Amino acid sequence: MGGGSGPVAGMTVRSGCGHDGPAAGMTADETRGQRAGAGWGAEGWGDGGLRRSAPVLLVIQPITRRLCAECRSGPRSLLVWEEGAPRCLDCADLGHLVFLPRGHSALTRRSREESGLSAVVVRFNRRKSRYERQGVLVEEAALALAEERCLADAEARRRRRVRDARRRAAEDVRFTDAFAREIRRLYPRCPAERALAIAAHASLRGSGRVGRSAAGRALSGTAVASAVRASVRHKETPYDRLLMSGVPRHEARRRIAGVVEATLREWGGAPP
Ligand SMILES: [Zn+2]
User: Fold this and answer.
1) What separation in Å is there between the alpha carbon of 182 and the centre of ligand 1?
2) Which positions fall inside the DUF2293 domain (predicted)?
3) How many whole angstroms separate alpha carbon 28 and alpha carbon 1?
């Protein structure tokens, strides 16, 4: 494996800065042949881009047990590589920061924006022979503020969804009303509540939700007539029972046709 690539080197190479960075690795493999240096790198790795970006303070999740070179405490789960030696966060003056694991990009971005001091936590992936970002260290107050903002955003999205749902519901009501009026225009003696029921059923399928043109098509004379006819077939005739008892559909339709036409005439429909 490549071995000697420290996080700074690995990152700067990929971010296109072109200089050889110091070792920040924790194993002999990782550190072999590397010069000492501070835990600063350049960001911009992982996006596949070649852009240069602001330097970033790097904190390592060591893959071997390491003590702090300064206070000898440890092994520590997070270390900063400073002047060729690992230091714990307390010795590196980062002890007050809190860890935010990767995975929530908006929260991460906002936390870092709000944080006067922040660091990126990386861990060496031996198999891929490169450092991978694990999360960030930020000020607790910054994280709290960022969480509030993300929650506010989520709340704003929730409210928008509620408004959208209300608008769609209002559209559905308008569509149902229009459909019922059209039924009553074509079948003046169709009971009002029956017209509304047929319209409500139709709006479940072809409502304003589908868009204005689909709603318009649904309100055409043919569409209204076929919705009414279907309703009569199922409610005023033994059509469903015939089907259930094994009568073929066309035969069942033939048998009930008289009742359907009689009902439509009764409701004042124009003869077909
Ligand atoms: Zn220490």
Assistant:
1) 81
2) 182-268
3) 12
Cβ atoms of 179 and 219 within 8 Å: the answer is yes
What is the tens place of the pLDDT at every residue in 191-210?
999 999 998 887 775 544 44
The tens digit of pLDDT for each residue in 28-87 reads 434 432 333 345 565 544 433 334 456 789 999 998 889 999 999 989 999 999 888 999
Residue 262: what residue type? Answer: A
Eight-state DSSP code of residue 34: P
> What pLDDT was estimated at residue 51?
40
Distance 91 CA to ligand 1 centre (A): 4
* pTM (global) more than 0.85: no
State the distance from the centre of ligand 1 to the C-alpha of 87, rounded, in angstroms.
5
Q: Tell me the residue range of the domain where 232 lies.
A: 158-266
- Ligand 1 midpoint to CA 74 (Å): 8
**Residue 127 pLDDT greater than 60, yes or no:** yes
Residue 139 forms part of a structural domain: yes
Output the CA 82–ligand 1 centroid distance in Å: 11
CA of 142 to the centre of ligand 1 (A): 24
Output the six-digit token pair for 100.
């935010």
Cα(149) to centroid of ligand 1, in Å? 34
Final residue before a domain boundary, out of 130, 149, 168: 149
| CA 266 from centre of chain | 54
Res 224: pLDDT: 87
90 CA distance to ligand 1 centroid (A)?
6
> Do residue 170 and residue 135 come from a single domain?
no
Compute the average pLDDT of residues 153-167.
Answer: 92
Cα of 129 to ligand 1 centre, how many Å?
Answer: 27
Distance from the alpha carbon of residue 67 to the mean position of ligand 1, in angstroms: 8
Tokens linked to 248: 């073929």
**126 and 181 housed in the same domain:** no
Identity of the residue numbered 77: S
CA of 73 to the centre of ligand 1 (A): 6
